[in-house]
């Protein structure tokens, strides 16, 4: 027995997606993923260095130096991304919050930034604890900068999560 698209749609949980809603979800997920991808990458690389490092489970200079550059001048590197992606995602979400369904694709709009917050906190903690300041030059100055950069990013992402939860909780 063959099934049609209408049959498949009738069995799918939740209301059917309209093409405009699908574009909205894809755009928001891409914006949030683009913002969180470097955070997740640093988490993976730092965790790998801690687990498989030859210098007693410490994070090495290969990861510290690029992050030190970014953290030293956030407005030049990370700030432009933060000032572009997060406000656009927030504005689109706020304007369309009534159509966002947090049970299907919309769950990614909640989970991506929430996981980003957790990764930022983990990154800040890893860099505070697992950097050998005696071996890496200027690490005593670089580590607080890097850690603060991740905490600021977590604050930005948690603001988005709180906005989304607040909008959805007030919806009737």
Secondary structure elements and pairings:
Blueprint: H1 5-11, H2 19-52, H3 61-72, H4 78-95, H5 106-129, H6 139-170
State the major sheet. Answer: none
**Could you give the count of β-strands?**
0
What order do the helices and strands follow? HHHHHH
Low-pLDDT ranges: none
Give the N-terminus to C-terminus distance in angstroms: 41 Å
Overall outline = elongated
- Label the structural class: mainly alpha
How many helices? The count is 6
Average pLDDT level: 81
**Proportion of strand residues:** under 5%
Our count of domains comes out at 1
- In which range does the helix fraction lie? over 70%
Cα-based radius of gyration, to the nearest Å: 20 Å
Question: Would you write up a description of this structure?
Answer:
This protein is mainly alpha-helical. It has one domain (18-170). Helix content is 74%, strand content 0%. It contains 6 helices and no strands. It has helices spanning 5-11, 19-52, 61-72, 78-95, 106-129, 139-170. α2 runs parallel beside α5 and α5 packs antiparallel against α6 (139-170). The mean pLDDT is 81.
Descriptive terms for the model:
172 residues, mainly alpha, elongated
Short description:
The chain has helices at 5-11, 19-52, 61-72, 78-95, 106-129, 139-170.
């Amino acid at each position: 027995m063959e099934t049609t698209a209408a049959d498949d749609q009738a069995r799918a949980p939740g209301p059917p997606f309209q093409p405009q809603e699908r574009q909205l979800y894809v755009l928001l997920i891409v914006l949030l993923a683009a913002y969180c991808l470097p955070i997740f990458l640093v988490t993976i690389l730092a965790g790998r260095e801690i687990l498989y490092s030859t210098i007693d489970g410490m994070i090495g200079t290969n990861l510290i130096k690029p992050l030190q550059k970014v953290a030293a001048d956030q407005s030049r590197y990370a700030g432009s991304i933060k000032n572009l992606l997060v406000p656009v995602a927030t504005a689109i979400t706020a304007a369309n919050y009534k159509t966002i369904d947090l049970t299907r694709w919309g769950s990614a709009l909640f989970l991506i930034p929430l996981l980003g917050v957790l990764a930022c906190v983990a990154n800040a903690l890893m860099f505070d604890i697992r950097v050998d300041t005696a071996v890496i030059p200027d690490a005593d100055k670089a580590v607080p900068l890097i850690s603060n950069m991740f905490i600021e990013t977590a604050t930005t992402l948690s603001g988005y999560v709180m906005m989304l939860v607040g909008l959805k909780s007030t919806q009737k």
